[in-house]
Inverse folding.
């Protein structure tokens, strides 16, 4: 009779535990960070008699967590790829909105100018036609200036987004290091890492992969994870987290660059080309390719058009016979000194002797001790 009571008691205890697990699954089923649990039931033991083996009932031997390391790795990779493309797309949409407005963009203003100039060429002495050309010139100038300001503002917002992403990466890394610490402590005490901490760990890894591409190595015993960047530098190692740092570039103070800070506090620049996944990668790619191209193309169109029209206008005369002058005034060209320059050379002025050779790219100016040398971006 006592054995029957013991069997019933163990069965009820297991059933109660099973209901708790089912209830937890139902309650947290809508949570994106929750992994389904299942009860692991084993025999409580028993005794062997002449008539065979008699069990003492059932007991809970553990709680399994539905987890697939390979699937999680694939998920993190997909999240990183999506975040990279999405981060770039968000910024590109701003350029598209700027250039796609048919009522307010450079292309429309250029077409309107050419139309008014065609009308003037048919009747050069017509006052209203001349006024229309000058009005179109003024509108085009304003469009160039407005577009340049909007691209500059977009560059600043991209810098801000890069700084925000770096802060998020550092914050998540610190949280992961703390979770690692708790996992090691609990494993040492109980032998099994708790499922809620493992869920928290995986949620943080997914958030981190959204910001930057990572590789993860998991300790199968404690559940601790070590995280490295795509260039193999450690970001989280056990209870320690390294840092990323966003600062102004030495060569261009208007450009934010990212550096890696190791455990000794040594700072080294991050090669942007090595970051190919995550939101940070999308921001880097947008800035170095899309935004840079838009700025350079806009600047070249404005410079070439103004220079060519000034050249042509100087060949003409006013109705009174006065030689023509410049239609457009171009701002003086400026060079930004690299903060790391060690020499004492100074650059007083920059001028273009042949505007037809100017390309839509950035230029570098170096002083070799005797001469100044100008190189296009392709020669860097």
């Amino acid at each position: 009779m006592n054995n029957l009571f013991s069997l019933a008691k163990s069965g009820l205890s297991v059933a109660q535990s099973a209901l708790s697990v089912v209830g937890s699954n139902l309650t947290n089923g809508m949570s994106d960070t929750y992994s389904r649990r299942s009860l692991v039931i084993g025999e409580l033991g028993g005794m062997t008699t002449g008539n065979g083996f008699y069990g003492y009932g059932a007991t809970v031997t553990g709680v399994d967590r539905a987890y697939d390391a390979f699937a999680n790795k694939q998920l993190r990779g997909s999240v990183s790829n999506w975040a990279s493309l999405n981060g770039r797309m968000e910024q590109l949409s701003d350029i598209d909105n700027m250039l796609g407005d048919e009522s307010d963009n450079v292309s429309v203003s250029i077409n309107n100018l050419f139309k008014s100039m065609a009308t003037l060429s048919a009747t050069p002495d017509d006052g209203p036609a001349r006024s229309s050309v000058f009005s179109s010139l003024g509108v085009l100038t304003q469009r160039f200036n407005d577009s340049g300001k909007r691209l500059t503002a977009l560059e600043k917002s991209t810098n801000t987004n890069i700084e925000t992403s770096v802060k998020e990466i550092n914050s998540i890394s610190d949280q992961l290091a703390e979770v690692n610490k708790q996992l090691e402590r609990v494993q040492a005490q109980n032998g099994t890492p708790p499922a809620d901490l493992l869920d928290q760990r995986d949620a943080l890894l997914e958030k981190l992969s959204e910001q930057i591409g990572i590789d993860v190595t998991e300790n199968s015993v404690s559940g601790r994870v070590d995280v490295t960047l795509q260039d193999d530098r450690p970001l989280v190692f056990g209870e320690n987290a390294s840092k990323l740092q966003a600062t102004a570039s030495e060569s261009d103070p208007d450009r934010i660059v990212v550096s890696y800070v190791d455990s000794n506090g040594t700072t080294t620049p991050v090669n942007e080309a090595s970051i190919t996944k995550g939101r940070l990668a999308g921001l880097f790619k947008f800035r170095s390719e899309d935004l840079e191209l838009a700025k350079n193309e806009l600047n070249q169109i404005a410079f070439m058009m103004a220079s060519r029209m000034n050249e042509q206008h100087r060949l003409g005369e006013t109705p009174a016979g006065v030689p023509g002058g410049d239609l457009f005034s171009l701002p003086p060209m400026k060079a930004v000194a690299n903060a790391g320059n060690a020499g004492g050379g100074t650059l007083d002025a920059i001028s273009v002797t042949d505007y037809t050779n100017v390309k839509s790219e950035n230029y570098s100016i170096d002083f070799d001790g005797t001469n100044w040398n100008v190189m296009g971006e392709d020669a860097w």
Notes: The radius of gyration is 34 Å. The helical segments are 2-27, 69-100, 106-122, 127-190, 195-211, 279-314. Residues 127-190 form the longest helix (64 residues).
